[in-house]
Write a structure and sequence with these properties.
By secondary structure, the chain is α+β, with helices and mostly antiparallel strands. Helix content is 39%, strand content 24%.
Length: 197
């Protein structure tokens, strides 16, 4: 039986999840939509109840806490620090930078917990997807990006673009282990992996 954790995933990842123990991550984070989302309750007859609670805020602000998180990410030398600093040079201390800083520390932890054979699917929208792709390239390696998955809803679902759905992107954390000791088969598998990228 699995365990369900409730709370900030960064704290959960750091406290409870061991290195290289996760096979699959599907990450559907807030999209930096600058909106608040509420959980609505229903009466026994199915009608909306007057009560509701805030489920989460999808608003981000550059503040003292975000600056501390930025400092923690950038104090370690490497590509993640480099890309976050480049984002800051370009964006400055604004809401998007706060979002990217928050995402960076979580993506680094997710990389740590993924098995070498694991995959990460990141569902994001166009407002930050280009930044997140660069960030994931820094964390996982630019050669680890596998694919973008695109689908269309069967109904528009209040979507002005008639059901178009922003795809999750997929990364593998590490190069796959050799499939076989048979040289001929390994060679064919390698070409298949390379051509899929």
């Amino acid at each position: 039986m699995g365990t369900l954790y409730y709370g900030d995933n960064l704290e959960i990842l750091q406290r409870y999840i061991k290195d290289e123990t996760v096979d699959l991550v599907y990450l559907d984070p807030p999209f930096n939509s600058a909106q608040n989302y509420n959980a609505f309750f229903h009466e026994k007859d199915g009608t909306d109840a007057a009560s509701q609670i805030r489920a989460f805020e999808d608003t981000w602000h550059w503040d003292i806490e975000t600056k501390k998180a930025y400092d923690a990410v950038t104090e370690r030398p490497g590509k993640v620090s480099d890309v976050i600093q480049a984002f800051y040079t370009f964006l400055g201390g604004n809401d998007m930078m706060a979002y990217l800083t928050t995402m960076s520390s979580r993506l680094v932890e997710l990389r740590r917990v993924l098995k070498p054979t694991g995959s990460l699917y990141l569902h994001c929208d166009p407002t930050a997807s280009h930044y997140l792709k660069l960030l994931c390239d820094a964390i996982f390696g630019k050669d680890r990006y596998l694919a973008e998955i695109i689908w269309k809803r069967s109904s528009a679902h209040n979507d002005a673009k008639q059901g178009r759905k922003q795809p999750p992107a997929r990364w593998k954390p590490k190069p796959p282990a050799p499939v076989s000791t048979n040289t001929r088969r390994t060679s064919r598998n390698s070409r298949a992996c390379n051509s899929a990228r």
